Amino acid sequence: MNLFTPFTLGSIKCQNRIGMAAMSRQRCDNKEMIPTQMMKQYYMQRCTAGFIITEGLPLSLDSIAQDGSSAIFNINQAQAWSEIVEALHQKGCKIIAQLWHCGRVTNQIKTPLAPSAIKIRNSKYNEPKEMSIDEIQEVVKQYLECSKLIKYAGFDGIEIQASSGYLLDSFLKGSANKRTDEYGGCVENRCRIVLEIIDKLGSVFDIQRIGIKISPITRQYDSYDPNPKELYKYLLEQLNQRKVGFIEIRDDDYPENWLDFGYPSSKSDIENVFEFCRPLFKGQIIGNGKVTPERGEELIKKQYCDAITFGRLFTSNPDLVEKIKNGEKLNEVDTSTLLSQGPKGYIC
């Protein structure tokens, strides 16, 4: 096996094992958050990937992290996405919608939602409010309603964003979740909202077309758990019991005391996150997080991962698949245009 071997992601047949990771590029230039023709062109330029995971799609107006996000919480948005989905399908590329609630990582919302009223330290972000049980259940309902629109638009699958310090990750991590009710405390309680969402999505999508993104050892946005092995062992075993199709795992390598958070280094928690997760989950594992093509090949050969998603490399190399295959030099990433407006650095 290598990056170019066809495979089945859950029950999604893909032409190769190279995926484009979800990225927030802030290129949706309308208040209705409807994907544009420029966005369609962006995705189509990268259609030689085996699969594409969309930019994070907010669930509602209360879950937006930044300007320029597209979404899929109403029919007009879903209809526009269906055009992109159909065009990619005609090229043999599969596309998975990532559902995203920013949680406390936002200044678009005066009082953001979070499991606990804990501000991200050393940041510009507003202090969040602790969610009530009713607000938690409303968010679970929003995931369900958005999944119906994703199914309507013809997406091949759905991924919930539960990594990198956003809402679901903050429920999982002890640094952000100090609740004392059924959504806090022990690992079973902190995983509850994630598993409730998975169970709801299973009423809309075949469970083999459902996935989740996790980041066991991140420090992003003040995210940390003192016992990630216990936390993710439980979560992955639960996902495995439900026969979830795939998980995307972000690897991280933050140094000790990054941003003066006082946390140990990422690798001191779990040295090899893919090797740790592999025995715990029988479905497909997608490697993510600054994984080079060379390391991706190694991870697939060792069977720690079944596919690799690349983010920034795809921004500057829409022909990334061909370049990797032919051993060509890759263009450097233009970081100045990752988050901006207009076609520069977006359409090549």
TrEMBL record:
Residues annotated as domain NADH:flavin oxidoreductase/NADH oxidase N-terminal: 2-330
InterPro entries: OxRdtase_FMN_N, Oye-like
Superkingdom assignment: Eukaryota
GO molecular function: FMN binding; oxidoreductase activity
A Pfam short name: Oxidored_FMN
PANTHER family the UniProt entry points to: NADH OXIDOREDUCTASE-RELATED, NADPH DEHYDROGENASE 2-RELATED
Protein name in the entry: NADH:flavin oxidoreductase/NADH oxidase N-terminal domain-containing protein
Organism: Paramecium sonneborni
